[in-house]
Every structure is written in C-alpha cells, then in structure tokens.
Specification:
One of its GO terms (biological process) is positive regulation of metabolic process. Keywords: DNA-binding, Transcription, Transcription regulation. The protein has 11 helices and 9 strands. It has a domain at about 10-140: Sandwich (Jelly Rolls), CATH 2.60.120.10. The strands form 2 sheets. Strands 6-3-8-2-1-9 form a 6-stranded mixed sheet, sandwiched between helices. It is of the alpha+beta class and about 290 residues long.
C-alpha cells in the first residue's frame, strides 16, 4: 500500500480526535479566515500549500500556525493533513521550535512521516488508544514537550473540556477553586494566555468535531454542543473554522473517525466519554 506523499486517496480520509490532539486527513474546502485556539500544523499532500498569516501569501509544504492566530490557507490538492495540538496540555512554543528545526533540516522527511501516519492509523485496531507521546512519536518521531499549568487553572481547563456543552459561569468556576472572580480571571489569562470567554468559545467550537458524522440536524448539533440556537452556532463556527457548519458536515461524509477515550477514566471523564460514544456509535470507523 503506497502511503508516501501523493499515494493517499479518498478511501483514507480520517480524523483521530482526542482531548489534547487531533489528526485529520481529508478535504480542506475554501475556508475564509480561520482562528483556531490550538497550534496547527498543515501538511500538503502533493502541491505546496498557500498560507497567509497576515503578512501575505506564502507557498509551503508544511505550515505551523500558533494558537489563536488568524490565518488563511489554500490548496491545489483535494486533501491535506492537519495536526492540532491544544496549548493547555502541550508546550506549543517548544513544539513549534522542535518542528521548526525539522523544517530547517529536512522538511520533506517530516512531510512524508506525517502523511504516512494516515496509513498507520488506518491499520491500527480501532480500540487501541494512543497516548499523547505515542501520537507524537507516530507523526514526529519524538515526544513533544508538555505544558504544566497552575493546578487550579488545570482543573478548570479539565472541567471545561469534560463539560463543554454545559453552562457554567466564570463565578461558578472561580468558586470551585476557592478564588474571587477577579483573581480567577486574572490567573486564568496569566496561565493560558487567553481570557476565559475566548477559551470556552474555542473548546465549544472544537466539540463540533465529535458530531461531524452525526445523523442529527444542524440545529440539534448546535444544542448538543452547548449553543443557544443555530444562529449563534453558525456564526461561531464560521468565525473559528472559516466555513459554515453545513460545509464542514457535508465535507465529512466519507470521513473515518476514531475517538480517543481516556484510558483510565475518572467518574467525570467517564460521563463525558459516554456522551461522545453516543455521538460516534453510529459514525466511527465507517
């Protein structure tokens, strides 16, 4: 099976989704400005990508985009690979330096390794869960540096990730950690680099990935992911992904999905994982 650059084909479209990392190989579409809350590595399939980080278009085979960086991307190929790394769990500045070094020494080798990950993930048993370090080794040949947050902020981040769709005000989160509202908001931004509202908007938009193969209507998906209505849902998804929700769902029809459920689940994560399984039970590994 040829899985070198250019050897992939539509039957290998896939997305592996975990709490800390996402790997995607599939359609790009024609997105407008995107603004992900994660660090993103775009990898061209064959022809170079055209990438604009705000300073003009550049042709690149691999493009590294830091978290919360507005950008535009175009591809002459139908497919590309995307690696998404959440900055609350990975030192994305350190990871960016590691990847930059690889790009300076042998970018085509890194491109080939990432694209070959499509085949390796397809061949892996669906019940196998990759740890973060295994994910990194599969795609990069090394573990990326981890990030350590203040324990109070770390617990709040975990809580938001587990209960993305549930309403929980900033004052409630502050109370969970025994902090005043002002102290909590200051600490959260100092640790993560973004305000709480912006972080929650990203995590909620990110949760759409669990639903792209759902049989639910877009209105139902909006409610299931915590949006008050389909108008707010469409506006938020467009602002972050650069595409309307309908285009994302339509472009995922032939996508094979693997959801990474935590290996050792606490009662909280078990409940969250259970809800994800309900979404993916009809769709995963199709």
């Amino acid at each position: 099976m040829d899985l070198t650059p250019g050897g992939t084909h539509t039957g290998h479209r896939l997305m592996l989704i975990g709490d800390h990392r996402v790997f995607y190989y599939g359609l790009l579409g024609r997105p407008a400005i995107r603004n992900f809350g994660c660090a993103t590595l775009y990898v061209a399939d064959q022809a170079p990508l055209n990438v604009d980080l705000g300073d003009g278009w550049q042709a690149q085979h691999l493009a590294w985009v830091p978290p919360y960086t507005p950008h535009r991307i175009r591809s002459r190929d139908r497919h590309l690979a995307v690696v998404m790394l959440e900055p609350e769990y990975t030192d994305t500045e350190g990871a960016g330096l590691c990847i930059h070094d690889r790009l300076m020494t042998d970018p085509l080798a890194l491109k080939a390794r990432v694209l070959a990950g499509v085949g390796r993930l397809q061949q892996a048993a669906s019940e196998n869960r990759l740890s973060d370090s295994e994910f990194d080794d599969l795609l990069f040949g090394q573990s990326l540096p981890r990030r350590t947050l203040d324990p109070r902020v770390s617990r709040v981040v975990d809580h938001i990730c587990e209960y993305t769709a549930e309403p929980c005000g900033a004052s409630d989160l502050a109370e969970l950690e025994g902090l005043s509202l002002s102290r909590f908001l200051h600490l959260f931004k100092a640790e993560t680099g973004v305000c709480l509202r912006k972080y929650r908007a990203w995590r909620r938009a990110r949760s759409l990935l669990y639903h792209v193969r759902s049989a639910s209507t877009l209105t139902d998906i909006a409610l299931e992911t915590g949006y008050p209505d389909s108008t707010h849902f469409s506006h938020s998804i467009r602002r972050i992904y650069g595409l309307p929700p309908r285009d994302i769902v339509n472009g995922s029809r032939r996508l094979r999905i693997r959801v990474q459920v935590p290996a050792a689940e606490t009662p909280v994560s078990a409940r969250a994982a259970s809800s994800r399984k309900l979404v993916t039970s009809r769709t995963a590994m199709v």
